[in-house]
Specification:
The protein is of the alpha+beta class. It contains four helices and twelve strands. It has one domain: Electron Transport, Fmn-binding Protein, Chain A (Pnp Oxidase, Chain A, Roll), CATH 2.30.110.10. The protein binds flavin mononucleotide.
């Protein structure tokens, strides 16, 4: 094994270099915070266990979505291949809650529930069971309490090498 081409690269550069080459699924996590609904584009979503049904997301502590998820509920939406615009929308920093959920974003906003985004492959609603702070991120563990596949035939959106891709089928 060699480490050719890396020279004296810093650990963060090595991590970034590897993760750039790893295909990532793209989700938008929504939650209802004290200051209104919030959303954030997230590729760190993963399944933790099936029984009980647990998932994990890693969320930057500086994001307004972080405080909203700490309310105890969040919804994970798996984006479809035609939703790159929605991914970019929820990755844009500095937006108010109203700006995040204004048109063209199509979302159902209900009191007491995380926003439900339209047009996704599917979604899971989760109750936070644990949170672990690590550096500038928090790992939120969520127990799945509801879910639906809205477009089961739609291919998921993939993020790889700083761009969006489709799965060839
Ligand atoms: C494809 C993609 C995946 C991302 N995954 C995550 C993630 O897993 N966790 C996270 O905290 N931020 C992630 N981000 C960054 C956030 O979406 C967002 O850009 C950042 O939190 C700044 O916006 P905010 O301050 O309004 O939340 C991702 C961005 C993109 C484009």
């Amino acid at each position: 094994m060699s480490e050719t081409g890396q020279g004296a690269a810093a650990p963060a550069d090595r991590l970034r270099g590897l993760m750039r080459r790893a295909p990532q699924l793209v989700t938008v996590v929504t939650a209802l915070g004290a200051d209104g609904p919030r959303g954030i584009t997230v590729s760190s979503f993963t399944s933790v266990s099936l029984d009980p049904a647990l998932v994990l997301v890693s969320i930057g502590a500086a994001s307004p979505a972080h405080a909203a998820i700490r309310s105890g509920r969040f919804r994970v939406h798996l984006l479809a291949e035609d939703q790159a615009d929605l991914s970019n929308h929820f990755a844009r920093p500095g937006q108010t809650s109203a700006e995040q959920f204004a048109a063209p974003c199509r979302a159902a906003l209900r009191p007491g529930a995380p926003p439900l985004l339209a047009g996704c492959v599917g979604w899971l609603e989760c109750a936070v069971t644990a949170e672990y702070r690590e550096a500038d991120h928090t790992l939120f563990i969520g127990r799945v309490v509801a879910g639906d596949l809205e477009r089961p035939e739609a291919a998921p959106l993939i993020y790889h090498d700083r761009g969006y891709h489709r799965i060839e089928r």
